[in-house]
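All the exercises in this workshop are built on plain-text protein records. The record below serves as our worked example for the rest of this section.
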Amino acid sequence: MQRQSNELEDNQTSWEDNQTSWEGNQTSWEGNQTSWKAIKRVGKTIKRVERQSNELKDNQTSWEEKQTSWKAVKRVGRQSNELGRETNELEGNQTSWKNSFFIK
C-alpha cells in the first residue's frame, strides 16, 4: 500500500512537472506569436515607407519637370524681351537712317 501511495505521489509530481512544462511551452508559443506579429507589423511599415518613398520620388520628378518647364518659360520670356529691345533698336536705327537720308 505504501509502495502504491509512493507511486501515486511520484506520478502526481511527474504530471505536475509535465503541466508546468506545457505551460512554459504555451508561454513560449505566445511569445513567438507576439514576435511574429511584430515582424509582420514591421514588414507592413517597411512596405508603407517604400510606397511613400516612391510617391516622393514621383513628386520630385514632377517638381523637377515643372521646374524645368518654369525655367523654359522664364528663358522664353527673357528671349522675348531681348527680341523686343533689338526690334526697338532696329526701328530706332531705321528712323535715324531715314531722318539722316531725308535731311540731307
